[in-house]
Amino acid sequence: MHSHRITALPLDEERLSADLAVSEGFVYNDSYADFVSTGLLRSTMLWNQSGSLDEASLGDYEGSARLTPHGEALPYVRELIGRLFDTRYLKYARFMRLAPGSVYVPHRDFLELKSDMVRVHLPLQTDDTVFASEENTVFRMRLGELWRLDATRTHSVGSFSDRDRVHIVCDFIADSLEQVLALDTPTEQELPQGNVAVRPPLSEQARRSLLGLAEVLDEHNYQEIQTLLIKQHFRTAISGDEVFELLKGIAAGSGRADLLHRATAHEEYCMVNR
């Protein structure tokens, strides 16, 4: 697995709480709705190319990022970013709020860009019932842990929590992670075993039962069956790629060519080209 924890940071709870309270009143967008199978993912820019909140998606550009009004409104977050990173390489920083019960469709990022980015997550509000994944590894990113995420590999997120998960997500153009870090403490390049979720194998009987959903699949429950498969990824040892394989298998077994095309086209969009 390429993603890994960088370090664990002490956070000022009082200052963090103040910034989180301010962020409740932000204007958010749902520009990542294509990757949410159920629930809600809202994001807002703290730094981007223009400094405008109207610029909601990623793109290639020269130069460093500019602070947006929402970035200006978060003094503690602004201080953290300046202390942790060499912001000359920063292209985007976003506040991302994942609603309780939400799951991402497995996907790969940066497909639309000419350059791969170095992506770093800093969880500001989360708990141990929120999971991330890379391929067939499911793990927890805990409060105050700084993580490098390899978003070019198949990944997903699943929240089984009763409150929003809030992360700062920073994207840099640089030759390496080391180039963007401004830490004066030792860093890690590992996935701590205590962060890894233990998932049993998917039994053959369970696999047959999932494929048996072909008997009931239709356009009205397609989304719910997709969500069930993604949740299964977080509970048993099937990879993000296998989620699409199972979904296509169910669609093929249903005899619904339109739903098989829907699954195949969505996989192409999420994994190959957009």
UniProtKB/TrEMBL annotation:
GO terms for MF: 2-oxoglutarate-dependent dioxygenase activity
Domain of life: Bacteria
TM spans (from-to): none
Aspartyl/asparaginy/proline hydroxylase domain location: 65-173
Gene3D superfamilies for the chain: B-lactam Antibiotic, Isopenicillin N Synthase, Chain, L-proline 3-hydroxylase, C-terminal domain
Annotated ranges, domain L-proline 3-hydroxylase C-terminal: 198-273
Protein name: Aspartyl beta-hydroxylase
Origin species: Streptomyces griseofuscus
